[in-house]
Amino acid sequence: MSRKRRAPSEAASPAMQSAAQPHVPVMLDEVLAALAPKDGGIYIDGTFGAGGYSRAILSAADCTVWAIDRDPDAIAGAAKLAQDFPGRLHAVQGRFGEMQALLNERGLAQADGIAFDFGVSSMQLDQPERGFSFRFDGPLDMRMGREGPTAADLVNGMEEADLADLIFRYGEERRARPIARAIAAARREAPITRTLALAEIVRRAAGPRAHDGIDPATRTFQALRIAVNDELGEIRRGLVGAEALLQAAGRLAVVSFHSLEDREVKRFLRERAGRTPRGSRHLPQGPAPLHAPSFRTLSPELVKPGKAETDRNPRARSARLRAAERTDAPAWGDTGDAAGED
């Protein structure tokens, strides 16, 4: 292993840890402070993963947690945690974007707090067979729920121009076109089915490693993962579901790891708190908003991890926490809005 200073890369970037490290919930103290668990409360861990937030919430108060994850491996792992808190942890396999329906059909209509930790989990990254990581050789899969099209399907089946747009949009990759061109050339020779093969193609097309140390393959892998799992759509649907499930004074705590995720959360909370005018900023001011604010953002609006945590846990470096409290106004529901401006 190189002895150079490790800058943000896949091994020490948002949502990534070494396989040798135990799972460390990011910004755990800050999330607990935002949720303020209370005895008798009902809480939802919308992104269960390895269960770090669920365990902390259950330990903080004599409460109940409903844990949701689309990954069957995560749900299987919840069984051990449920034994430690008999009758207080309920695990549900499914997408957090469908949490309202999943929980309503199980008799839960309201909650006192909801936590989200977006992105891929360290567990998924550390399993080569899941195909999320370019640190290991594995099938080019990337499906969190093990269903639907894989990353290999996108890489080998999309038109070159569409693939370039995807890499640019979801990976924020400036060299998306030459990368897509290189992928298209390589797949004409043989289908691209392995993670290391794709990573090498991308590295050659992207050029030298950036000064910040980020591996040239990082943004392309991020883009494919987001597309395969419809992660931004899931975030929008999950936030709408959280709005519907939280009772008045219920708390929402959301941890994001990159700008695309955080932009979705920021836009949603600012809009629902009545701080963003409806419609385009380029048009004359329209009529008063149709909805009363359904959230009030907590102060400070954006919380970043402290130096002690980032030194201890490199995964936390890019983490951002936004928290809000539900008002007693009716939920707005799905307004059909796409992501707005920052």
From TrEMBL:
Gene Ontology terms: biological process: rRNA base methylation
Principal place of residence: cytoplasm
Biased composition annotated in UniProt, kind: Basic and acidic residues: 304-314
Region feature Disordered, mapped onto this chain: 271-342
Domain of life from the UniProt record: Bacteria
UniProt GO cellular component terms: cytoplasm
Keywords: Cytoplasm, Methyltransferase, rRNA processing, S-adenosyl-L-methionine, Transferase
Binding positions for S-adenosyl-L-methionine per the UniProt entry: G51, G52, Y53, D69, F96, D117, Q124
Keyword Repeat: no
Subcellular localization: Cytoplasm
CDD domains recorded: AdoMet_MTases
Catalytic function, reaction form: cytidine(1402) in 16S rRNA + S-adenosyl-L-methionine = N(4)-methylcytidine(1402) in 16S rRNA + S-adenosyl-L-homocysteine + H(+)
Gene3D superfamilies according to UniProt: Putative methyltransferase TM0872, insert domain (1.10.150.170), Vaccinia Virus protein VP39 (3.40.50.150)
Documented EC number(s): 2.1.1.199
GO molecular function annotations of the record: rRNA (cytosine-N4-)-methyltransferase activity
SUPFAM superfamilies, A to Z: Putative methyltransferase TM0872, insert domain, S-adenosyl-L-methionine-dependent methyltransferases
Physiological role: Specifically methylates the N4 position of cytidine in position 1402 (C1402) of 16S rRNA.
Family: Belongs to the methyltransferase superfamily. RsmH family.
Protein name: Ribosomal RNA small subunit methyltransferase H
Organism (species): Hypericibacter adhaerens
